[in-house]
Write a structure and sequence with these properties.
Uracil-DNA Glycosylase, subunit E; 7 helices; globular; 9% strand; alpha/beta; 5 strands
Length: 199
């Protein structure tokens, strides 16, 4: 059965009422106005610290969004303009628990992954890669067991790109973590490899 977002939302309301945050809408994906070169994938829109909801993912209704600035810095290093990107979250609804403290996050993300695959396949060629902004996302898309072989720093040091046959989205996955340690300005060799794929 092909999942749709309303089915997923109702499932979470009924099965995870303690963590599901009942908002009237979920953030829309940001769709660049130029030819799309990459899909930028966030974890989820929950923002407990600032208690904000967004029109677009990462608050991209504001071109100077503080939530997206580390990712934008990395895109700039890759010579990818924001207008050449499609930006979406793996989990598209809000929770009242931040990602790292949400014990149901993996299970919820796994449910959303099927919907996300259909969404991306309906919009883009399978050759368009996914830039993954958090290690937790890789755990879902590649699998908890398989990803144990690859620590975050190992991925960057060894310039590892995940082949489309290795993950649930069936697209090339490229790590583009938003943590300050992984700003591409600090990882020149890794940046060269990623640029060669995207350009």
């Amino acid at each position: 059965m092909e999942l749709d977002s309303s089915y997923i939302i109702n499932y979470f309301k009924n099965n995870f009422p303690n963590i599901y945050l009942d908002n009237k809408s979920i953030p829309e994906p940001f769709i660049g106005s130029s030819k799309i070169k990459a899909i930028v994938l966030g974890a989820d829109p929950s923002n407990i610290t600032y208690n904000k909801t967004f029109k677009y993912v990462f608050g991209l209704e504001n071109k100077d969004s503080q939530y997206f600035s580390p990712i934008l810095s990395n895109l700039n290093q890759l010579n990818i303009d924001l207008q050449e990107a499609y930006v979406q979250n793996l989990i598209q609804n809000y929770f009242n628990v931040e990602t790292s403290k949400n014990k149901k996050w993996f299970e919820c993300a796994l449910i959303w992954s099927g919907y996300l695959k259909n969404e991306l396949d309906s919009r883009f060629s399978p050759e368009i890669p996914v830039l993954v902004t958090a290690y937790e996302i890789l755990k879902v898309l590649i699998g908890k067991v398989e990803i144990k072989k690859y620590k975050a720093e190992t991925i960057y040091t060894n310039k590892i790109i995940f082949d489309k046959d290795s993950n649930l989205l069936n697209r090339k996955l490229i790590s583009l973590f938003r943590h300050p340690k992984y700003l591409l300005s600090n990882w020149g060799d890794y940046t060269k490899v990623v640029k060669s794929i995207l350009n």
